[in-house]
Structure formats: C-alpha cells, structure tokens
Amino acid sequence: MSFNFLNTKIIFKPLFFPTLFLLIVFPILILLGSWQVYRLIWKENLIEYYQNQSSSKLLDLSKNISNNENLEFRKVKFRGTFLNAKEIYISGKTYEGNIGFHVVTPFRMQNNKIVFINRGWVSEGYRNPEKRKFSLLKNEIQINGIVRFPQKKGYFVPENEPNKGFWFTINPNELINFLKFKKIDTISEYYVDAIRDEGKIKIPIGANGKPNLRNQHLSYAITWYSLALVLLIIYILFHRSVDRLFFKKL
Q1: CATH top-level class for 58-194?
Q2: Contact 131, 125 (CB under 8 A)
Q3: Where in the chain are the domains?
Q4: Which among 26, 93, 122, 131 is least buried, having the fewest CB atoms inside 10 angstroms?
Q5: Do the Cβ atoms of 192 and 146 come closer than 8 Å?
Q6: pLDDT tens per residue, range 180-205
Q7: How far apart are CA 175 and CA 172, in angstroms?
C-alpha cells in the first residue's frame, strides 16, 4: 500500500493482527469518549436544572399541590411528626470520608399524608436508635427539605433486601410494601432530603441544601480520547520499528 502526501511518498504494509486489534479497540475508545461527552452535556443541564429548582419559591407540601407540579429538587417545607419506630437505614453512605448510614424515617404531615424523609448521615455507632434517643423527635416539627425522585440502582449497587435489613437505594414503593403502609395514604412519587440547620451539626447530619453534583465527565472523555490517540501512535511507531512503514521525499 502506497500513497503520496505533501511531496512525500508513504509506503505502508500493515500487519494483520495489530491492524485487527486497532480496528476493534480504536472505535471502542472513541465511542467511550463520545459517550462521556454526551454525559457531560447531560450533567451540565442537570446541574443548571437543580440550581434553578432549588432557588425557586419554597413550597408547602402540606397544601394541595397539583400532580403536574414540577417538584424534583424543589425546596419544600411542611409540619408533622416522625414515625420513629419505622425508620430504616441506607448502607454505604459517607460523610467526610467516614462510612455510615442514611436514616430514612416516615413522616406524617398535618394533612395525614405520609412522606419518607432522608434525615441524613449517622455513623455505625449511632445506627441503633437506642444510642441516639436525642434524635427521636416526638413532637410536631417543621421540616425544610429538597424533593428527590426515587433513586435508581447503579451497575455495581446491590438490590435492596428488605427482609434482611439491607437497603442501598431509597425507593418509596419498596418502603411502602415493606412497612405495609396504605398506598393511598403515602407519597410514592418522591421522598425528601432534610436540610440541616445552619450552625451546630446534629445527628443525623442532613443535606446542606447546596448543589453537590459531581461532574467529571470531561476528564473521563479526555482519558478515553487520549487512550485512542496513544493506541494509534503506538500502532504507527510499531510498524515503523519493523520496517513496515516508510516515508520518502518525492
């Protein structure tokens, strides 16, 4: 195989197996990089949406809200009481590098509707409610929080095993079935992340109410594209080293 380019004659005799490897792996690396670019655009739009939603007018969930209301990431408030005996624990959660759990507790609002509240993080030592009786609030209180849609299980996240006490994602429908709540009385479309009060941090440690969506897709895209480029360079240098690629001036 030979062709002319910019007054240079290029003679190329590609080896079968290295070329086959390049033809398979190179497109895969390019596709992976392009997928990360797509994810980058998606994440940037999601962050902008989160910021717009969280900065919009505070909603009172105790009032009748239209089913068409766009609630995801909206900041909300409502009053009611915790059903402390029904709390469950989401495994594998971290706070400042420490492993622990998120405490999810049903909350009966003033309109008698039950909504699940992710109260926040506790360490292994405070998972047992008997060791944090101070957190088992019994009186009517006001919750300030952010509406979150049911979590989707990632590729490497195990399935919930309610009967064994293993929870890895917050899915209101699964919680309703496990706790034997009446669906008509319980909100299944979303749950609420409780926002912690400013000042002294209390257990459970709630969300800070600020956007914290990691966006590393650009670095991932650069990595995949760089690997594709390195593979191409190695392919060319290899063929040069075994005298299968020549450049001659015309």
Answers
A1: mainly beta
A2: yes
A3: 2-45+216-249, 58-194
A4: 131
A5: yes
A6: 998 888 999 999 999 988 777 788 99
A7: 5
